[in-house]
Amino acid sequence: MKKTLLILSLCASFFTPVKSIAQDDTPYTLTVFNQAVYYGMYEATVNEPVPEGAIRLSNSSYSKMLTQDQLDSFGNTLTMTVTLNPLCDNYDRIGNINLAFVPKNTTSYNYDDVRRIELGRFITPFMDKNETSVTEVPYVYDLDHLTNVFHNTAITSQYDLWVELEVYGYQGGPGQGGAAVEIPGCAGRNDVYMGSLTFESATDSSIETPETSFIAPMSYKYELKNYTLEGTDVLGETTKTITLNLESAVQNAQLHLITSNHGSNTNGEEYVRRNHFVYFDEELKLQYKPGGISCIPFIDYNTQINCIYYLCNGTSNPPPRPDTNSAWSWNNWCPGDKIPNRVIDLGNLEAGEHSFNIQVPDAQFAGGQGYFPMSVYMTGDGYNGFILNHKSFTEQAVSIYPNPVNDVAHIEAYGLGIKTVNVVNTLGQTVFTGNTDVINMSQLQNGIYIVKVQFDNNQTIIKKVIKK
User: Fold this and answer.
1) For residues 164 and 100, is the Cβ–Cβ distance under 8 A?
2) Dihedral angle sign, alpha carbons of residues 221, 51, 64, 71
3) Angle at Cα 170 formed by Cα 165 and Cα 171, nearest 5°?
4) What pLDDT is recorded for position 342?
5) In the sheet where 239-246 sits, what is the strand order?
6) Nearest-10 Cα torsion for 94, 280, 232, 168
7) pTM of this prediction?
8) By CB neighbour count within 10 A (0-12 exposed, 13-18 middle, 19+ buried), where does 286 fall?
9) Mean pLDDT per 10-residue interval, the chain, length 468 residues
10) In 3D, which of 171, 169, 153 has the Cα closest to residue 161?
11) Residues 156, 116: contact at Cβ < 8 Å?
12) Which of 33, 51, 273, 447 could form a disulfide bond with 197, CB atoms 3.0-4.6 angstroms apart?
């Protein structure tokens, strides 16, 4: 199987000593959000009140900072529970929980300006607020490996840790994008869900707590797809490589990976199970195919009639799908269930450059639709220090200007030597090649182009440029 050589820039890495973990055996419970109200994902941001101590990042996202006292109260075990209560949504959506690293003493922030890791992902069920038999759906995650981050004083001395709970929904009737008829009592409303998030922690003396901690955010909901260079390393292939340069050896390294298939009924990629292959340092570490098991254990949360759980046959009371894996051989996930947090053990890693690569070779994305949102980060221990590679070399820091461009574009590389520059059109054709910081686009047709710049250190950035 072809192994791509293209790479992304080094993501932020944290190496640091760990503050001693709370020794109190009393369990600690922290409610971060309590029935926070979420609003329509496609509508203008509302001005409704926010939960106490929280900020609204969008209609679908709230964030709240963990205080130092709260961080000190966590033991070495951690369970996170998200609970949803229905309002006026009528679809199944992706939702997620994140941990954001925000510069110290910042009272608010823009979503795209901070690093984060995805702690968990879930799919909302089809819920009817008028149905009283089931009024909430829980999602539970075991996150013991993150307690060292909460006690990592080198991180918390420079960054505040914010928890983001994102719940997406939309209220629509027939012809409005909804999957079911408008819920009675929801006419004219745009409140879609209530969401709660609780942490439960304790100290287990049988668990050995390392003296050092390492965490490296590598990718957050990267849209893996094969029909644009913004979604793959190689057009026509569904593959992405991320490199890490470890300045010291890391022990007990683990990758934490979340992927899920999303698309539309027309391309089928959302409903076709594909083999995923995960490599580390060019060695196959994991092969998996999402879904394929019965969703019936979660049917009770789906109190709206829908054509995922029920065999829609044109009647008002369709029968449910059978509780057999074969009856669900087409599914990648279940509304009302969480997406797996896949953990890949890497053992001990030497200092130096390492690479993560994921491939989904059979993915087709007919019509240029669909994507596989991918989040991955690495944890470990054994390194006594703290390094944060700021955005000195990222797609955000390296710029191409002016954009849009009339004739000549310039690359601001901040002293990095340029090895090659390639400009590709929307048909995947290379229309310019060079090795300087000047791109002459005067002879190109107006439109959108992908500029790929490889530097002398072999790191690569990809930018979209508009020629007008």
Assistant:
1) yes
2) negative
3) 135
4) 98
5) 239-246, 352-359, 276-280, 283-288
6) 10
7) 0.81
8) middle
9) 36 52 77 97 93 97 97 96 95 94 92 92 95 96 93 86 96 59 86 97 87 87 90 90 87 95 75 94 96 96 89 80 94 96 96 93 89 94 51 52 88 77 88 92 91 78 85
10) 153
11) no
12) 33
Largest CA distance in the chain: 71
Give pLDDT, residue 171.
81
Q: Tokens 């070495």 sit at which residue? A: 76
Tokens of 203: 């100290």
Which residues, in sequence order, are bridge partners of residue 405? 467
Q: What is the pLDDT of residue 324?
A: 96
- Which DSSP state fits 69? H
Token pair for 171: 């209220």
DSSP 137-163: EEEEEE-GGGHHHHT-HHHHTTEEEEE
Residue 41, exposed/middle/buried by CB under 10 A (0-12, 13-18, 19+)?
A: buried
> Which amino acid would we find at residue 4?
T
Strands lying side by side in the sheet with 338-339 = 54-58, 61-65, 159-167, 94-103, 115-123, 338-339
The set of long-range contacts for 319-328, using a CB threshold of 8 Å and a minimum separation of 24, is: 320/296, 321/295, 321/296, 322/294, 322/296, 323/294, 323/296, 324/294, 325/292, 325/293, 325/294, 327/294, 328/291, 328/292, 328/293, 328/294, 328/295
Instruction: List the structure tokens of 405.
Output: 């461009």
